[in-house]
Amino acid sequence: MTIPYDEALRERIREHLANHDRRAVTDPTKRHAAVAVVLVDSKVGEDRVDPVPVQDWNAGRPMPAENLDGRMVDVSGGAAFLLCRRASRLSSHAAQWALPGGRLDAGETAVDAALRELREEVRIALPGSTVLGLLDDYPTRSGYVITPVVIWGGGRLDPDPAPDEVVAVYRVGLHQLQRDDSPRFITIKESPRPVVQIPLGNDLIHAPTGAVLLQLRWLCLEGRHDAVDQLEQPVFAWK
Question: Which of 67, 158, 167, 179 has its C-alpha lying 20 to 30 A from 203's C-alpha?
């Protein structure tokens, strides 16, 4: 069932974030980045056709299972978050699923950076008053500490992706994070830590985005304070 996008949800998420003892990571060897977890409204069935030709976007990218083709369809409805399909020509983490975000500029806070990246990547401008709180920091294998900033969009909004960075933006219903088959954990020979996978549409979302989305479910929706910073990324995301 979809989750209503209303003031009750907004206040529940704000309260859960306020009551959370946030895990901050201080590592001088890593650069600091922020991502925007933007909560918006959506309609059931508005995403039955993927706007991206996934055959081209997935060229050379192995699918995780025979029944998955990489399309992000039939995921909208009710309260949702914005998920980006990154451009395939980017120099790093190309053709991956991501939340709007990027590296902090000099003197920026994580909140400032998340709001700026939201403006630059998907052309949505929101004030600091829309921020509900922060999730735990997530240290990546590629040398970053990511701070997720949870933002209340206040409606459907109208993303306009910057084509040099993002090829499409999807409204993914929060109820999709609570699928019976989610989350999934697998083991890899390269690490003793479990790799997290979040099934969405016809694909799997891995950490760091997958870890952020898992805590969005556990903490914001369910009030669980479980840590996600030790969940592993797949090897292809280590660079």
Answer: 158
Residue 194's identity, in one-letter code, is P
140: CB partners within 8 A, 6+ apart: 30, 146, 207, 208, 233, 237
Which amino acid type is present at position 7? E
Instruction: Let me know if domain 7-47+73-177 sits in CATH 3.40.50.300.
Output: no
Bridge partner list, 138: 146
Q: How many residues does the chain have?
A: 239
Q: How far apart are CA 147 and CA 131, in angstroms?
A: 13
User: Mean pLDDT of residues grouped by 10 in the chain (239 residues)?
Assistant: 98 98 95 98 91 72 74 95 81 72 96 98 98 98 96 96 92 98 96 96 95 98 97 89
| CB neighbour list of residue 151: distance below 8 Å, 6 or more residues apart | 36, 37, 38, 39, 114, 115, 118, 126, 130, 131, 132
CA–CA separation, 139 vs 16, rounded Å? 22
Domain spans in the chain, listed from the N-terminal domain onward: 7-47+73-177
DSSP strands (E only) in 174-212 = 184-188, 191-200, 203-206
Residue type, 141: R
Distance CA 94, CA 103 (A): 16
